[in-house]
Amino acid sequence: MTEFLTHAPHSLEHILVLPSFGRKKRQKALIDLACNRQVRVETAHDFKRLDMAQGALHQGVVALAEPVWETAMESLPSVWGSDVPLLVVCDEISDPGNLGAIIRSSAAFGAHAVIISQRNSADINGTVIKASAGAIVHLHTCMVDNMAKAIETLKEMGIWTAALVPVDSMPVWDADMRTPLALVLGAEGKGLRPLVMRRCDIRLHIPQSIRVESLNVAAACTAALYETWRQRRKDAASPAEYSGPLK
Prior knowledge:
The protein is of the alpha/beta class. The chain has two domains: 2-65, CATH 3.30.1330.30; 73-235, SPOUT methyltransferase, trefoil knot domain (Alpha/beta knot). Helices cover 31% and strands 18% of the residues. A seven-stranded parallel sheet has the order 6-5-4-9-7-10-8, with helices on both faces.
């Protein structure tokens, strides 16, 4: 909630707190921040009537927020501007914890937007926002109903699409991740749908030191994003020098 109050207070309609909330120093600081940001704070005896996400823990405070972070596909070029674009594409990521972790890593390592399939995906609710530790306010999300078509649209924008898969693919460190890039992630368990995978330009995997089960989708995404961030910090060449992610 602190991230919302700090970076997107206009998205919060108001905040509800239990009578006991505010006695601790950090709780009082949050209330003071809300008041400074001109977000209304009200006291409630319980949150039973609120439409909270199943399993969400309120810790004595709840914010009612508007989904201000959604962006249309055609508006994405204005999001990255003159930067080398980096996007994360989530094809049917159904676990809210994984989706929140992906959003958090995407914000941490400089992604401009996360593209999410509307069907068979976790809703962006309180559980996802909490799992992202509020990082969702730092990047854009784009909901699409046809992921294969969305990937073709990204190609038309000059972006290379890399499917992250566990086998039969190139190690992520052997690819040039400095190019305008979208990392494409598949669902937990079943992975990327064949139609979506066929649309991607290349396939990448995260090498592991021992033979164990592959990383879960959120962990694999974090590793790939870190390698992208590492390469881009090491060599800040112009996008005009790139011909694609194959070295």
